[in-house]
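Hi W.,

Here's what went into the run:
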Amino acid sequence: MVSWRHARRLVVVGYLVLLVGWPMSLVVQATFADGLDTLARTLGDPAVRSALGLTVVVAASAVVVNTVFGVGMSLLLVRTEFRGKRVLSALLDLPLSVSPVVVGLAIVLAYGQDGWFGPALEDAGFRVVFALPGIVLATAFVSLPLVIREVVPVLTEIGTDEEQAARSLGAGAWPTFWRITLPAIKWAVVYGVVLTMARSLGEFGAVKIVSGNLEGATQTATLLVEQRYQDFDQGAAYATAFLLAAVSVACIVVISFLRPEEKP
Amino acid sequence: MTAVAAPARNRRRPSTPARVGLGVGVLWFSVLALLPLVAVVVETSSAGWAGFLATITDAQTAAALRLTVTQALGVTAVNVVMGTLIAWVLVRDPFPGRRAVEVLIDIPFALPTIVAGLVLLSLYGPGSPLGIDVAATEAAVTLALLFVTLPFVVRTVQPVLAELDADVEQAAASLGASPLTILRRIVAPALAPAVAAGAALSFARALSEYGALVLLSGNLPMRTEVASVRILSYLESGDQTSAAAVATLLLAVSLLAIVALELIGRAAVRRG
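Here's what came out:
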């Protein structure tokens, strides 16, 4: 049996190294092939700085929106009864299985210049597609369920005993939420936020369609990676990709340390 | 709302603030996701049934759809085997360095897809240190999809496997059951729903992938062009209706897959 065990382990580790580990290490190598020069030159490029800045703004907006919505929606799904709850719950998972390209198309059809609401919004002086709001909408769409998926199971598991005790002792709804519920779901919210952040920083397909991809204005970091690679500016492509990869790997490592030994 | 519906135990009927919250939440969700998705379906229907059929039977589009579905099926099959095996090794034969492996499995989930494509290109593209160049071939599509769908089966099977009591398997073995019987009668039925759920996620993701393929697959019409790329090329040529038709078909197929695999998972539990 020992040899079987070793064979299994070898297959698993080999597969993961060939598929993930080795390729990842090559990007790090390509970034640092000539020391810190490539990274420094890339970060000195105004277009790169603008793209990174836009990505941070967009991801932060998506995280705030999805966290408020996600925590509120989770509370409603777990703590109240209403008609159509199961349908709503299933629909909330939908964004995870919709292609980013379809998300982009959907937003253009609804809010674009020839879309359902685009002309009316434009008359009101509010441009969605090919502008910041569209990029935020697309990003919030693709990362929508991540907070809910983390918070709902925890809310279900902790039950309502402590909340009811607090309420029966005269605490209002708001203090009960801040003092009892929120501390109990704190880590689930943190995981949800970190996952949402990683997903938002990396959104590509949906943003490519709704942003217009204008360098220095509506070009996000992922769009810049594609453009620079295709323009044979591989140094900048690899360096920006490295920065994005570093943030997402940091997100995973943070989660794996925050969530120590729940799995035996 | 009827007044007779009895509230479940420990749950209150929505208070006024909860109802307001629900209203605001559903409104935002509709603005963000539901209305735009409805717009896609409505745009598709504007060309009528004949227009829809004409779009999806167009030679280039049909080829893209065929490639997408076969690749998604193939990749999902690999994930069912490899994902279950990886979960098994992580849960049943822990080894030093397990934590690093856990991080490797989660990387595809968090890594920006365009970066994923670039990362794979550095080992399997032109200038590969292994001398393997799959760029702009069907193998590149498979590779990219294997990368982005890696975590799904592992992450759904792992917790179920951890809950599964090894004692039962030992008891069966001590009563003379062969390893194959144990696998078939005890382990497989317990894991089937989780494997099915992971497979559904993996299939839906493979159908819809775009970012990881852009740089790697070359997007050659009739050969390595997948459905998402086809949607984008329709959109870039200003044909929103055809783009919407392909998008609607993709949405329908991934919903169908999720429902079907859910049913398979349930049936497997009943048989076990």
